[in-house]
Write a structure and sequence with these properties.
Length: 429
């Protein structure tokens, strides 16, 4: 098969790394890719949001399968566009329709979907700009802390946890009246704060059948001890000790099954990955949010644990034959440590040459924000630059292997958290 993978981050490098291991892959194109995908696939200078160019490339290169990594082209309707073209109407695509992608594209749509389909989630109300007074009055009746979420896509930055009523009121005004997150906060979901332990559960679905992939726990804050600003993710661990078989069974019965049934009942075309952000409170799961793609950096810890043929999984999703696919998971631990540009998630400098080791053991290096300069050197090009995944029979061994490799990578002002997985390690001891 000729396969086109859209995206340029660590998630996409992990996808590419897994796809090229399959005997079913003849050629893999990654658009636009990064310095890491360039070593194992063919990078293509296409924008993920240039639907016409993507369509033209699919036709000129006889692409048999399209895999969409990030959420933005899905929310903007890439799948619908390709299916509306006569020559790509039946092209197998891994990614939901625009309506399906609204589960991530609109927090309000997502919450309403959960409510309709009996999926446990936090209590909420949604307010738009002309409802600011009602929103402020609603805040006065709520318990603290309280969560404010921009309705639309805000690059992972549109969620605020407010500790005081004054902070909540100020933030609501900034979001609705001052467009703090641009168009994304023209509507704001005000939500009950859920306490407990967060967990990411990943589901592959063809809209009817589903497979539950390995779970993961990620680390969103820039600072050790989960302090400082939110980022796109500083690390991940899989499996997760508190997500035992009984808990995952509850997730399946109370969340996965009603979600998939709801998609089918509401005739929402959904062939792709569903990333369910959960809160585990006293052994009971509640949904924090849906995302309509795999997480990053969780993908870098989850995919290496899939032992069965990955392209077979992708084909099953895209062609509606997922029920015939046998998913095999490794019991081994995978832990991911993300190395970032100094200053991230604020402003940072780009273009520093990266020193990478020639030989590594029991780990793999995934590129995220990297490119090659005119001298052919690999340089930092984004905030999150490198994700290192270590493997081991136990969590401690996997972490040791990840950090050993991280210690062999350097560039000017590189930063990473040294406490990834330590909270989970304490739970296992």
């Amino acid at each position: 098969m000729n396969i086109l993978l859209l995206g340029s981050g660590g998630r996409e490098h992990a996808f590419a790394w897994k796809i090229v291991q399959s005997p079913e892959c003849s050629r893999l194109f990654v658009a636009p890719g990064n310095a890491g995908t360039a070593d194992i696939a063919e990078n293509v200078p296409l924008s993920i949001n240039d639907f016409e160019a993507i369509h033209g490339f699919v036709m000129s290169e006889s692409v048999d399968l399209v895999v969409v990594g990030p959420e933005e082209p899905l929310v903007k309707g890439l799948v619908d566009f390709l299916q509306s073209q006569p020559d790509t109407a039946t092209l197998p695509i891994v990614g939901p329709s625009q309506l399906g992608a609204t589960l991530e594209g609109s927090k309000d749509f997502s919450k309403r979907f959960m409510q309709r389909n009996g999926v446990p989630t936090a209590a909420y109300e949604t307010f738009s700009t002309n409802e600011i007074e009602a929103g402020l009055a609603y805040l006065e009746r709520q318990n603290l802390p309280i969560v404010l979420k921009a309705d639309g896509l805000a690059a992972g930055k549109g969620v605020l946890i407010c500790q005081t009523l004054e902070e909540a009121k100020t933030s609501l005004k900034e979001m609705l009246l001052e467009a703090k997150f641009g168009d994304a906060s023209s509507k704001v979901v005000v939500e009950e704060f859920l306490s407990g332990i967060e967990l990411s559960v990943f589901v592959a679905t063809d809209g009817k059948s589903y497979k539950i992939l390995p779970e993961a726990k990620d680390y969103k804050r820039i600072g050790e001890g989960d302090t400082g600003l939110n980022t796109g993710g500083m690390g991940a661990v899989s499996p997760v000790v508190f997500a035992n078989a009984d808990f995952i069974k509850k997730v399946e019965e109370k969340i996965v099954k009603p979600t998939i049934a709801g998609l089918e009942k509401e005739e929402i075309d959904y062939k792709g990955f569903l990333f369910i952000g959960l809160m585990n409170k006293d052994g009971e799961p509640s949904v924090i949010e849906y995302n309509v793609r795999m997480g990053d950096p969780e993908t870098e810890a989850v995919l290496p644990r899939i032992k069965s043929d990955f392209v077979g999984l992708l084909k099953g999703i895209a062609t509606g034959t997922l029920d015939r696919y046998e998913l095999e998971i490794s019991p081994e631990y995978a832990t991911t440590v993300v190395m970032v540009s100094g200053g991230y998630p604020g402003s940072y400098e780009k273009g520093f040459p990266i020193s990478l080791p020639d030989n590594i053991e029991k780990s793999v290096i995934f590129h995220a924000g990297t490119s090659k300069n005119s001298q052919g050197e690999i340089v930092n090009q984004g905030g999150r630059v490198i994700a290192v995944t270590g493997f081991g029979k136990g969590l401690d061994e996997a972490l040791e292997n990840a950090f050993d490799t991280v210690g062999k990578i350097s560039w000017n002002k590189a930063y990473y958290r040294r406490d990834i997985g330590q909270d989970i390690l304490k739970l296992t001891n």
